[in-house]
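S.,

Sequence below, as promised.
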Amino acid sequence: MRTLVAIFSAFVSAAFLADWLLGNPGHIVIYFDGNEFRMTLAFGIVALALTFVVGVVFLSVLQGLLRLPSKYKRARQWQSREKFVEGFLADVLGNSSSAERLYLSGAKYGASADVHYLAAAKVAHKRRDMDRRNELLRSAIKIGGKDSLASVTRAQWLLEEGDFDKAELVISELPSSLREQPSVLRLLGEMFFQQKDFDKLITLLPKLISRKAFDSARLEKMQISSYSGYLLKRAQTGQLEELNKAWKNIPRKVRKINQVFATYAGLLIEKEEYSVAERLLRKKIEANWDSQLVALYGEVRPNVSRKILKTLEKWGREHPNDIGLGIARARQFMQAGMWGQARGVVSHLVNQEPTPKMYKLLADIDEKLGDSKRSSSNRKVGLELAANFANK
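The prediction came back faster than expected:
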């Protein structure tokens, strides 16, 4: 409606202007370089209008021509994206050669050519063509630089191949902003974990937790391994003070994890700090029952084993048929020289949970009782079970 009103207004204005020009035919005089040019006012207005229209058309055409390179570039980039998508679909369908060709064909005009080379390198990696993979990866790093995602992928593959020194060197050359990314932190965490470099892993753990680089189960496993390894390393000095100092340096939340606590208690037992270990284990078990800690409690060697046995009997009324409790009772009977009672407990445990560890314990007891035939038989069954577990 507004357009119609505008057109109608233009026609009316033109009619009035034409009528006015007919009644008032003025002239336009132009002097240029000593020459005089005359024209009517109507002709001048028409000439000016035509000049304006021609100028607008010329500028529009010129602008279109100037935009041609950028339009061509955008068209090629769209084509590059389409090639990348086609390559991805080919890779999903298992056509690796086609996927690699499509990725590389889109690299020339792509805005991120290094990503195309990296995708092609991943295809080669999946088909285990390492020479081709490394060639494509070098091209990706050459285009994107050492601070690109291609370098992160290279570090990941070096880690998978066990070349930890090179992997750590590649990560160290990344910019600090990229090193703080969860994917890179995850690589560092796995590298320290596999190297058993627990000191570095402990230093890295706060970042791994805050950036959520791993799920909770994996993080807990790393905490258990790193802090248990830390305690074992400090215990190698032979000084009890070093072990206790290391335990106090561990965060309180981590000390509450049963596996870490078990490492500390086991080291106290190893250093014959039986009274301290017995007290700590008893309090921990009574506060929060744990079968593995109960089994470890059976390794405590006080002067009178019957005191430990009474505690175990009290726990047995609350936790009948507990495997850890049975192991603890058997160990205490063995320490007290009560081999017959120990065999009875272990025989019951073997029926309840036939594991290689149980059969080995039963074989050791039979050997102590002088029954070499039965000891050999139980040891053989234990080894067969261990082989079956290893093959699963």
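The longest strand covers residues 27-32.

Coffee later?
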